[in-house]
From TrEMBL:
Keyword Cytoplasm included in the entry's annotation: no
Family designation: Belongs to the ABC transporter superfamily. Ycf16 family.
Name of the protein described by the UniProt record: Iron-regulated ABC transporter ATPase subunit SufC
Keywords, in A-Z order: ATP-binding, Cell membrane, Membrane, Nucleotide-binding
GO MF annotations, alphabetized: ATP binding; ATP hydrolysis activity
Record-linked InterPro entries: AAA+_ATPase, ABC_transporter-like_ATP-bd, ABC_transporter-like_CS, FeS-cluster_ATPase_SufC, P-loop_NTPase
Residue ranges occupied by any ABC transporter domain in the UniProt entry: 10-254
Length: 266
């Protein structure tokens, strides 16, 4: 459901960013309101994952122009950990393994750090164990995952469920999910999507970065955006994703070029 009267959560204007001296984002504009789900699609190399990582504060990317406001704060001035504390969550396309660190310890430390930031009560190990097991039910995860090292030996689907478990515990204001559907079979896709849907509410927002329309059968977006060459070149409703599935991206490029040509000659 589109929420045109809801407060703006994220306002991106003229964002330009590079990596290793190569320009990737080239004047990107993007607005997200509370309660909305946005899907970003586009061909490889269009800048989708770069945008996600820039929002989260990945240090490999340099912002060269533009502004990003998150709930009235200048997001670009905040360190990655400060962005997380402010309520920005990034679900990785390729979650890393952390050998020797128990999943339960990692999750509890993350949870309690945020609780302290929010001025709320931290949980001791027994209290947290009860809390996290309830959240795991959303994702049909076995409690055995708590005793294993973070993502070590996890399948692709298990790693993605673990990412959404983190999201469930941290309750971010803005969840950015970078190709969460990649590498998932149908059952895992359904379970992960179900978890995301249950965690969405009128006070938060979700940005989905995806190549495939199939994810949007489970998580229905309010807006679908097409990125090309570091810019948003087309925005529509969920029907746009179906058009992309059927027709590819070439027609979007052609339409955008024609519109740009007409503007120049107007």
């Amino acid at each position: 459901m589109i929420h045109p009267n809801n407060p703006v959560l994220l306002e991106v204007r003229g964002l330009c960013a590079s990596v290793n001296g190569i320009d990737i984002l080239k004047g990107l504009d993007f607005t997200v309101r509370r309660g909305e789900v946005h899907a970003i699609m586009g061909p490889n190399g269009s800048g989708k994952s770069t945008f996600a990582k820039v929002l989260a504060g990945h240090t490999a990317y340099q912002v060269t122009a533009g502004s990003v406001q998150f709930e009235g704060q200048d997001l670009l001035t905040l360190a990655p950990e400060a962005r997380a504390l402010a309520g920005v969550f990034l679900g990785f396309q390729y979650p890393i393994e952390i050998p020797g660190v128990a999943n339960s310890q990692f999750l509890r430390l993350s949870y309690n750090t945020l609780q302290a930031q929010r001025g709320q009560e931290e949980l001791d190990p027994l209290e947290f164990d009860d809390h996290v097991r309830e959240k795991m039910k959303l994702l049909e995860m076995s409690p055995d995952f708590l005793d294993r090292s973070v993502n070590e030996g996890f399948s692709g689907g298990e790693k993605k469920r673990n990412e959404i478990l983190q999201m469930a515990l941290l309750e971010p204001r803005l969840a950015i999910l970078d190709e969460t559907d990649s590498g998932l079979d149908i059952d895992a896709l359904r379970i992960v999507s179900q978890g995301v849907n249950q965690l969405s509410n009128p006070d938060n927002a979700v940005i989905l970065v995806t190549h495939y329309q199939r994810l949007l059968n489970y998580i229905v977006p309010d807006y679908v955006h097409v990125m090309e060459a570091g810019r948003i070149v087309k925005t529509g409703g969920k029907e746009l994703a179906l058009d992309l599935e059927a027709r590819g991206y070439d027609w979007v490029s052609a339409d955008h070029e024609a519109a740009s040509h007409n503007e120049v000659n107007a």
